[in-house]
Amino acid sequence: MLQTPSQTVGPYFAYGLTPEQYLYDFKSLVGNRLVSPLEHPNAITISGKVFDGEHNVIPDAMLEIWQNDGNNQLFGRFGTGTDAENRFVFHTVKPTSVDAQAPYLTVILFMRGQLIHSYTRIYFSDESELNEKDEVLNSIPKERRNTLIAQKKSLTYEFNIYMQGENETVFFEI
Amino acid sequence: MSNIIYNLFDREVHPPYLSPEYKSTILRAPTMPLIPLKQSLSELSGPIFGDFNLGEFDNDLTKNALKNGEPLGERIVVHGKVMDENGRPIPHTLIEIWQANAAGRYIHKVDQHAAPLDPNFLGAGRCMTDKDGNYKFYTIKPGAYPWGNHPNAWRPNHIHFSLFGSNITNRLVTQMYFPGDPLLQYDPIFLGVPPKGRELLISSFDLSITEPSFALGYRFDFVLRGNNATPFENL
């Protein structure tokens, strides 16, 4: 049987997929707190922006985060339309290394102007030893690897996504 | 489990990233080739929503936002089955939907189309497939609406669907269209799908689930990416 084709999430997903974040009167099934930051001393925050080919910040993207290191299976979802700077933000815990590979989060990215979603990964700048040996990172041309590595700032990790241009983020066929 | 490999997106039926007739793709489509990735634990798993308590009327958009009456428009019931490419049903998976009201207006704050909102219609719903992969929603047939892609551009009537499937390689967001819609031939979002895939996005009128004196029935099945495991011979 043929796969059902994908279509864009469009500009109006918010009241269906992220209703509480956008203040619609409908219960959200998931949000951006994969863990409660107050209850997890090791909680981390990841935030960033999504940029289009003219370096404009995209205000109507939706990101989903999935992580599974065998211990924690965590899922979150957030749109870029509610923050004053159109950032996304997630609270989670850093996954542990599986099979000696560097820890990472999977990102599923949706937006108006994408007829099919894209997949990328978030690795962590303070895991340089594992990153350097990582099979997936090493399969990527060296000059593009950094597009997948969230930079640790004092209390948060920053991860920007570039759809096009010099720093175009690596997207995967999975 | 380690030798199960999920099929890739069939690019003969899925739309490409860049589809210039749909103008928003021009600055948002990745330009570099996708990097192939060996499927690992993360790709072979995904969120499980079985523990969520869905609201009583989450799958009935004609009832889940009532304020002072009933929503206006043509009541419909939409049902179907979620399967993999081998025809195996995918049970207990989350389906979320959102849509415009009968007048072609979304409740979303960004929608500026000069058509009325319906105080008794939100346009969002969700349900889980049952043990045989079946789902069913009651809703109002969404209206067509204009958009800014090109002069006199109108979106055909459609319902947005979001599906999870059994793992994150199965993730699908799509739109269901209605049979015989004259706007389909002009819609760059629908036409972004290669010809081989287009019919798969059009629901069929289904008299067998049409409820007498109540709601017209439409059937829309989903096929998500399957894997290399041998299908059951007796299905």
Topology (elements, then pairings):
The complex is a heterodimer of chains A (174) and B (235).
Chain A: H1 14-17, E1 43-48, E2 50-51, E3 61-68, E4 73-79, E5 88-93, E6 105-111, E7 118-124, H2 128-133, H3 135-138, H4 142-145, E8 149-152, E9 156-158, E10 161-162, E11 172-173
Parallel strand pairs in A: 1-9, 2-10, 7-8
Antiparallel strand pairs in A: 1-5, 3-4, 3-6, 6-7, 8-9
Chain B: E1 35-36, E2 75-84, E3 94-99, E4 124-128, E5 134-140, E6 145-147, E7 153-155, E8 158-163, E9 172-177, H1 188-191, H2 195-198, E10 204-205, E11 216-219, E12 222-224
Parallel strand pairs in B: 2-11, 2-12
Antiparallel strand pairs in B: 2-5, 3-4, 3-8, 6-7, 8-9, 10-11
Report the biggest beta sheet of chain B as strand number plus sense, adding barrel if it closes. 5 strands, mixed
| Apparent shape of chain B | globular
Name the beta content range of chain A: 25-35%
Uncertain spans of chain A: none
The pair of chains with the biggest contact is: A-B, 70 and 83 residues
Q: Helix count of chain A, per DSSP?
A: 4
CATH class of chain A: Mainly Beta
Please give the CATH architecture of chain A.
Answer: Sandwich
Q: Order of strands across the biggest sheet of chain A?
A: 4-3-6-7-8-9-1-5
Mean pLDDT of chain A: 97
Total domain units of chain A: 1
Organism (chain A): Emticicia aquatica
GO molecular function, one term (chain A): protocatechuate 3,4-dioxygenase activity
Keywords (chain A): Oxidoreductase
InterPro entries (chain A): Intradiol_dOase_core, Intradiol_RC_Dioxygenase, Protocat_dOase_a
